[in-house]
Structure formats: C-alpha cells, structure tokens
Design goal:
By secondary structure, the protein is of the alpha/beta class. It is 30% helix and 11% strand. The chain contains seven helices and eight strands, in the order αααβββαβββαβαβα. The strands form two sheets. It has a six-stranded mixed sheet, sandwiched between helices. It has a two-stranded antiparallel sheet with strand order 2-6. Helix 6 packs across helix 7. It is globular and about 40 Å long. The relative contact order is 0.17.
Length: 221
C-alpha cells in the first residue's frame, strides 16, 4: 500500500510549482512549464470540463467508494496523460483498513481499485484521474493502481477468487487503453523506480496471474 507520498510524487497545483528563480533562463523555463500545465488542464475552463456521473465506475461490477480528494489529482486521462501501465499492490492489512486510509485526507495516497480476498472489487478513484499510489509522479500519471487485500508474507491471502477478479480487472484496463499484456506494462509496486515498497512480494504468482489476464477475451495482445 502507498504511504504518505504526495510530496515524493511532486503532485502540486501550478501555483505552487511556478516559482521565480531569477534570470532569463528561469523565466523561459517557467513560461514553458506554465504552457505545459495549461495545455494539460485546458478542460478545467468553464464549459469545457468533461461531465462526470457521481458514483460511476470504470469496471462493471465494481462498487464505488470515494477516496479522499486529497489522495488523488483531478485529470482527464488518457487525453492529458496517456495510460500504459497497471501497478499491482498489496494492502499490508485488511480490506476495511485500506478503504479507511484511502478516505483519510492525511494519508496522502490511494489506489484506483482494491480487490478483496473473495474477489469483490471496490473502485475509489476514477481511471481518468491520477491516484497517488506509486510513489513516483510519472508512474502515477501513466498508470492505474490496483491494491489487493492481504500481506506479502502470507501466500494464503492471494485466493483463487482474488486472482480471477483482479485478472479480469487488469484485462479490462489493458483493453481500454491498448496496454500490452506483458510484464513491462503490468508491474509490481516494487518495480516502480524510487520506491521502498516490496509488494506484491515473492508469493504473488506472476506466471499464474499473467496467464489469467491473457485468458480474458477483452485482453489486448
């Protein structure tokens, strides 16, 4: 599970990032940064923002439970940030505790989805928005994060129902954004550069998981 890592991710509003450093080079750099931010945030202008349906989910059958808006950043993916990766996490706790911390504005992190041991899927952040889950800003912007209930040192936590449900979820995400179904694009939290996390751990059966994802009819080649 992600810890308080919003500051590590560098997710900040433009007003806090556009600092004057001094000198012509700095002014040019600030102008380029501001232009880049404005290009990405054009849809926030009045009358332009994409309509949103309260409680809508991106995966059929998922239950919507909103995370605190302090733990994610509003976006318009994949129009402003392309999505080409799925990051697999383990909660290091119960499903209920994961939901609770993702709703805590002081936690500073949350994933898009949580998969329970019985295969139930809860969505807490829309896929079009940037979740603070990976501990790396660039990876947050380009990925969808999926938490799995349990502990990395307890292989019995990774149930058949969990693997099957998570595989369907990941296959749907990959199909939606044309993400290749391979280990370069479906990764563990431990594989994110700069992170100090070890999940999903040595007991997560990657071979089994990838086979299941590929068997789903909607999975991309």
């Amino acid at each position: 599970m992600g810890e308080k890592q919003a500051s590590t991710d560098g997710d900040r509003r433009i007003g806090r990032r556009a600092l004057l450093i001094g000198g012509t080079a700095a002014a040019v750099g600030s102008a380029v940064l501001a232009r880049d931010e404005l290009a990405r945030l054009w849809w926030r202008a009045p009358g332009v923002e994409k309509p949103r349906v309260q409680g809508a989910v991106d995966f059929r059958g998922a239950q919507w439970v909103a995370a605190s808006d302090a733990n994610w950043r509003r976006a318009d993916r994949p129009d402003d940030y392309g999505i080409d990766m799925v990051v697999i996490h383990v909660t290091q706790g119960s499903f209920a505790s994961a939901v609770k911390v993702f709703q805590d504005p002081g936690h500073g992190a949350a994933a898009h989805y949580i998969v329970r041991k019985d295969g139930h899927i809860t969505q807490m952040i829309r896929e079009l928005d940037v979740a603070y889950h990976a501990g790396n800003r660039a990876y947050n912007e380009r990925s969808v994060g999926i938490e799995h209930e349990g502990f990395v040192d307890r292989p019995e936590d990774f149930t058949d129902e969990m693997y099957a449900a998570s595989a369907r979820l990941t296959a749907g995400i990959c199909a939606r954004y044309a993400i290749p179904v391979d280990r370069e694009h479906i990764i563990g939290h431990v594989e994110v550069p700069g992170t100090d996390h070890t999940d999903p751990g040595e007991h997560w059966d990657w071979d089994r998981y990838m086979r299941l994802v590929r068997k789903v009819p909607s999975a991309s080649a």
